Amino acid sequence: xxxxxxxxxxxxxxxxxxxxxxxxxxxxxxxxxxxxxxxxxxxxxxxxxxxxxxxxxxxxxxxxxxxxxxxxxxxxxxxxxxxxxxxxxxxxxxxxxxxxxxxxxxxxxxxxxxxxxxxxxxxxxxxxxxxxxxxxxxxxxxxxxxxxxxxxxxxxxxxxxxxxxxxxxxxxxxxxxxxxxxxxxxxxxxxxxxxxxxxxxxxxxxxxxxxxxxxxxxxxxxxxxxxxxxxxxxxxxxxxxxxxxxxxxxxxxxxxxxxxxxxxxxxxxxxxxxxxxxxxxxxxxxxxxxxxxxxxxxxxxxxxxxxxx
Amino acid sequence: xxxxxxxxxxxxxxxxxxxxxxxxxxxxxxxxxxxxxxxxxxxxxxxxxxxxxxxxxxxxxxxxxxxxxxxxxxxxxxxxxxxxxxxxxxxxxxxxxxxxxxxxxxxxxxxxxxxxxxxxxxxxxxxxxxxxxxxxxxxxxxxxxxxxxxxxxxxxxxxxxxxxxxxxxxxxxxxxxxxxxxxxxxxxxxxxxxxxxxxxxxxxxxxxxxxxxxxxxxxxxxxxxxxxxxxxxxxxxxxxxxxxxxxxxxxxxxxxxxxxxxxx
Lengths: 309, 264
Fold this sequence. Notes:
The complex is a heterodimer.
Chain A: E1 2-5, E2 10-13, H1 14-31, H2 36-45, H3 50-74, H4 80-107, H5 110-142, H6 148-156, H7 160-163, E3 167-170, E4 175-178, H8 180-196, H9 201-211, H10 216-242, H11 247-270, H12 273-296, E5 303-304
Antiparallel strand pairs in A: 1-2, 3-4
Helix pairs in contact in A: 1-2, 1-3, 1-10, 1-11, 2-3, 3-10, 3-11, 4-8, 4-10, 5-12, 9-10
Chain B: H1 2-19, E1 36-38, E2 41-44, E3 51-58, E4 64-70, E5 73-84, E6 88-101, E7 104-108, H2 112-115, H3 118-123, H4 128-134, E8 136-138, H5 148-159, E9 163-167, E10 171-175, E11 178-187, E12 194-204, E13 207-220, H6 222-233, H7 235-259
Parallel strand pairs in B: 2-13, 7-9
Antiparallel strand pairs in B: 1-3, 3-11, 4-7, 4-12, 5-6, 6-8, 10-11, 12-13
Helix pairs in contact in B: 6-7
């Protein structure tokens, strides 16, 4: 039942850890998020030091997102072209974000600002998604499945975005955008993700749905494709510069998460896009409430090791 | 500055008492105090989940005994949380806990304050109050931090299971071979690999009259040791191995699921 972790220097019940992997992998396959926001604090709760929890989680996400990307690709749900543009933007943004955070940290009191921005952002994104998908579900019930309104809504946009140069057709998503749009949005999410110390799936998914107007199922596959590359980079850098990746912990986690990701993909296929959106928005709102409670309530222990979110 | 000086003087004194052995102690014990610990080497394998230590030895009849298990003092930096803007709890900065042992476990034959006076306890680093005077807490500017952080430190370490104090757990027996004592200690798996010192102190009339000590070692072996060595000595290779393994595992399970008809 117990297994000793050579880098975390602690012993864990491997059934519990596998269960955590399964649950987070399920979310990953279903919504296209990495799940680090959930996994890192859970690992810390079972006694893994924060820096090792965050780095090892990235290693586990490599497996879960490879598994998820593979099955979404088979289902034709990965827009590689869009993913690549977002990825390039994300890398640039991530590097810029690391510099921004250095400046912010030096000026002091930045942590407060970062946490608040994070909470407000998650709260807004979650509420917006919830209301919007509820609205869409009601509408589609009334019109009994007519696709016309969605198409009309798509046509309505344009304006500024349509006037940009380098207009490109993204076949898998069925949308036309200037290549600059995913590049800039990817950079934006990359900066925020680096500042907040999270993978960014939670921000990238809504950006793809609402700003890039991609269909929900393609969003999930494309987001996983992107997360895969981000987490490969993070795992390698953490192992190389900080020695914080626990290989054994990662293996136990990924045994659960790769299966979870498969189940999530299958389950996602059975759900309607709006149902997926509403579920995701509920999770985003629950995470927001959890963070607010953590911030407001007095912690039982006021000291901790450095690292973590 | 004065406090720092006093603290360092106290440290030096405590260290002198701990490490110079028995030279300074009056030899009044009828039977010399001994100490041994089994096992004296504990291997960390995959299934390691802590260990059961047995500490035994001989002692003089009327003496009370205090057994401590400690490691070399180290400096530990920890983040601390405080209320910001009267509303939210945030990590505000770093506190340095200087000269604090990673592990501090104490067992005794009776209540510590009944066995020894405060001065003796302080001098021999016995009990949490003695540690309070010994561990220096500094903020990032190097100035001494509020005393309340020692209580928080204690809470943190107890939660980690690496600080523990149990009175009345050391059992004495009178047999044909003389007077012996014994205590069983549940060694926490949270304690990192390293060499630890078991020290036994005999007390009579509120004074320390004899001392004995023994060491034991916790060390990684086999695959656990090899992985940890690789992570630190060949971090690049270790990183590539972690990534490649995760990728292969993910793709393999993806392929198996498809073949097995899981998605259709």
